[in-house]
Amino acid sequence: VIIGGIDASWRHFKPQIELQNVSIALSDEQALEFGRVSLGIDLISSVLQRRIISNEIRLAGFELYVVESADGRFSLAGLPASEKRMDMALYRNLAQWLTRQQQVVVENGTLYLTSEKRPELLQIFSRFGVYVVNADERHQLAAQVDMPASLGGKIELVANLNGIPLLQDDWSIDSYIKLESVSVPGFAKEFIKAAANSSTDDASKVK
Hints:
By secondary structure, this protein is an alpha+beta fold. It is 21% helix and 53% strand. Strands 1, 2, 3, 4, 5, 6, 7, 8, 9 and 10 form a ten-stranded mixed sheet that branches.
């Protein structure tokens, strides 16, 4: 992890640590970079446990390059698609950590989508953001992104949860998707291209 700068401040009467130009190495070829990372500090818990305990995290300004492989799997550029099964214990620990935060915000991201099946494809999704808000047993997850011009406007997904699937047997979810200024011809064109590529792949396998 490389940090370009660090500062401390108060926000809404809460201490906050500000990190600038944070780079996290995912492999020798790929790094995840954020222009700004803000950590809201739970002062009482930090004093009692004698270590920094966060209750709010905000990450802003990043780029992700996603590649569709020839066999249809997706991975980050520079990282191989994993053959391993999900480590459920790791996912449970992550879910527990997320629910302890009052708010987690990832915003102002850009996603670049390319494909080994279609080398000419480059889709750019801008202003990508994910927002998690926790209040006791109630949790809200929201995600939104501006689509490429060929596909139209914006997609927004909101999910309201009572309980967490990985942590509790008794849970429920209420969700919806909002589409804004979507280009039906654009989606139809992409669907036809994908179907054509799939048919070509199937024909090659038969041969």
